[in-house]
Specification:
Two copies of one chain form a homodimer. Chain A is of the alpha+beta class. Chain A has nine helices and 18 strands. Chain A folds into two domains: 131 residues, Aminotransferase class 4, branched-chain amino acid transferase, N-terminal domain (D-amino Acid Aminotransferase, Chain A, domain 1, 2-Layer Sandwich), CATH 3.30.470.10; 158 residues, D-amino Acid Aminotransferase, subunit A, domain 2 (D-amino Acid Aminotransferase, Chain A, domain 2), CATH 3.20.10. Helices cover 29% and strands 29% of the residues of chain A. In chain A, strands 8, 9, 11, 12, 13, 15, 16 and 17 form an eight-stranded mixed sheet that branches. Chain A has a seven-stranded antiparallel sheet with strand order 2-1-7-6-4-5-18. Chain A has a two-stranded antiparallel sheet with strand order 10-14. In chain A, a hairpin with a 2-residue loop joins strand 11 and strand 12. The radius of gyration of chain A is 20 Å and the shape is globular. At the A-B interface, strand 3, helix 2, strand 7 and helix 6 of A face strand 3, helix 2, strand 7 and helix 6 of B. Strand 3 of chain A pairs antiparallel with strand 3 of chain B.
C-alpha cells in the first residue's frame, strides 16, 4: 500500500512523449544528451525517423536498414541488434500511449577518454524517443498547398558530408528557412552549386515537368517517403525520372509536392510567390497523396506496434 | 551543524569541470542538453572557446566579441549581457578550481512551441563549461612535431555554412580525421573544391613558403590564435600572407604549424608521410611558439580569473 502510494507519487508522465537514454525510459521533457558527447559538440551523430500511424509503424524495416547503414557510414555502433532497437522504439510508443507518433532513433559518438581526440576510442551512445506525430505543414498549408521559396544558400555538398547518411548538419537548411519565412513563404528549398534544386529541411521535392514526375537524384537524402512515392507512381503508370531539377524547371512545373515522413505527400502551389501550374493542388499530387495514405493499410509496409 | 552536514552530503564534485545550464551550476558529468533542443537535433548552435592559463583568461574580449558575432550571424540570442557571460565563465572556472582551463560558451536554438517549425519562435539557450585545458596534440607530438595527412574530404564550403561563425558542423572534419588516423597520421587537414588546404579539426594552418608565412584566407574559421600568430609575426618582421595555400605548397614548405586555442602554436614536421623542410621543428615556428606563450603575460591579452 505504501509502496503503491510512493510509486504513484513518483510515476513519470509520459503523455508528451517517451525517450530511451542511458539504459532507462524517461518522459521526453527529461531526455537529454550529455553536454560533452561529441554528438552535440561536433554533431557527430546519425539518426532516423519512423512514423506510427493508426497504431502501426510504417516501413519500419526500411528505416531500420537505413539507420544501420548511416551508422556504418559514419563508423558509429549503436551497440544494439535490430531486434533490440525495435523493442526500444516499440516500448517508447507504448509508454507514450500514441496511435500516431514520430519515432526517432539516434546514435552519437559519445566521447573518447579524457584528453584523447581519437573518435575510434569513444563509447558510442544509442538514444530513441517517441512523440506525437509531427506534420511539417499545418492543416491549412496542406489544404491550400505550401508556398515555397528557393534559396541561394547551397545545400552542404556530398563531397563534404554524405547526404545519404542522415545527419544533423542543418545550418544551411535553417538559415535558408529563416530567409524564406522572412519573405513570407512557408518553407524553403536549397540549391546546389549548379543552381539545381535539391532538398529542404526534412523533405525531398517532386515536380511534374511535361508529364514526367522529376525528383532530384544527387546531393539529397534518399528519403523513404521519396522511395515510396516513386514506387506508388510507377505502379500507377506515372513516368518518373530521378535527375537534376533546375529552379527554372520547378517554377515552370504543372504540379509540385514535397515528400517527408512528417506528412507524406505535401502539395506545393507557389514557388517564390508565383503559382505552380494553375496554383491549386493538381490531380497527380492528389492521386499520390491518397496512395501514400492507402499504403499505410498495406501489410507489406505496416508493422503493428502491439505486434 | 545539521545543515552543514547536509550540505556536505550533497556537495557536488566540480573537480573534473563545472558547467552552467538552465540557470544552475553543475559538475561537468551532469551537464546536458535537452534532447529535443534544436542545438542537438539540428546542430542549430554556435559556440566559442577561451582558455585560461596561469589563472588568467587569454584574449577574453576577442573570444566574447566573436561569440556574439556568431550568435548574430545565426540569429541566436544568448539572452545574457557580455558582463553576465563573463561572470558565468569566471564562476565555472572558480568552481572547477582550475589554473589552466578550456572554457566553452554555447548558444543553442532551443525549441519552438510544440508543432511549430519556425526557428524564430524558439527560446534560445545559453550554456557554458570549464574543464581542464585541452591540448590538441600530446606532449610527444608537440616535441617531435605533428604528422599531418591532407584529406580529400572537402571542408563544408562557405556557400553552405559560414565558417567565420563557429559551429559544430564537423562531420567532414571527423571523417577526414578517421581516415588520417587509420593512415597513421596524428591529425588531418581538409581541402576546398580547388584542392587548397583550408583547416583541420579545431585549428588553422600556417606554412613558411619561400620566406613568407602563408595561412589560408577563405573558407576558414578566423581563429583568435591565428590572429595572434599573425600579429606576433608582423611585429617580428616576418612577412605574412593570407591567401590560398595549395596542398603542393604545404608539402614543399620549409616549416609548417597549426594554430589553436587547444595548444597555441603546434609544429608540423610531416605531411602525408614526407618530412616538411628538414623534418624537425624550424626556427620561425619556435620563435612564434615562444612568442605565443610570452603573450600570455601581456596585460593587453590577459584577464585574471580572480579579477
Amino acid at each position: 500500500m505504501r509502496q503503491n502510494a510512493r510509486m504513484n507519487a513518483t510515476s513519470p508522465d509520459f503523455s508528451k512523449g517517451a525517450a530511451w537514454q542511458r539504459g532507462e525510459y524517461v518522459p521526453i521533457a527529461q531526455a537529454s544528451v550529455t553536454m560533452t558527447d561529441w554528438g552535440f559538440l561536433r554533431s557527430d551523430a546519425t539518426y532516423d525517423v519512423v512514423t506510427v500511424w493508426d497504431g502501426a509503424f510504417f516501413r519500419l524495416d526500411a528505416h531500420l536498414e537505413r539507420f544501420l547503414r548511416s551508422c556504418a557510414r559514419f563508423r558509429l555502433d549503436p551497440g544494439k541488434s535490430p531486434r533490440e532497437i525495435i523493442d526500444i522504439l516499440t516500448h517508447c510508443v507504448r509508454l507514450a500511449g500514441l496511435r500516431q507518433s514520430y519515432v526517432e532513433m539516434i546514435c552519437t559518438r559519445g566521447q573518447p577518454p579524457w584528453g584523447s581526440r581519437d573518435p575510434r576510442q569513444a563509447a558510442n551512445q544509442f538514444f530513441a524517443f517517441a512523440v506525437p506525430y509531427v506534420w511539417i505543414a499545418d492543416e491549412e498549408q496542406r489544404r491550400r498547398g505550401l508556398h515555397v521559396a528557393v534559396s541561394d544558400v547551397q545545400r552542404i555538398p556530398a563531397a563534404s558530408v554524405d547526404p545519404t547518411a542522415k545527419n544533423y548538419h542543418w545550418n544551411d537548411l535553417t538559415m535558408g528557412l529563416l530567409g524564406a519565412l522572412d519573405a513570407g513563404a512557408d518553407t524553403v528549398l536549397l540549391t546546389d552549386a549548379g543552381g539545381n534544386v535539391v532538398e529542404g529541411p526534412g523533405f525531398n521535392v517532386f515536380a511534374l515537368c511535361g508529364g514526367t514526375l522529376v525528383t532530384p537524384k544527387d546531393g539529397v537524402l534518399e528519403g523513404i517517403t521519396r522511395r515510396t512515392v516513386l514506387e506508388l507512381a510507377r505502379v500507377r503508370g506515372i513516368v518518373v525520372a530521378e535527375r537534376t531539377l533546375s529552379a527554372a524547371e520547378l517554377r515552370g512545373a504543372s504540379e509540385a509536392f514535397l515528400s517527408s515522413s512528417g506528412g507524406g505527400v505535401l502539395p506545393v502551389t507557389r514557388v517564390d510567390g508565383q503559382p505552380v501550374g494553375s496554383g491549386v493542388v493538381g490531380p497527380v499530387t492528389t492521386t499520390l497523396l491518397q496512395a501514400y495514405w492507402d499504403a499505410h493499410r498495406d501489410p507489406r509496409y505496416s508493422t503493428p506496434v502491439e505486434g
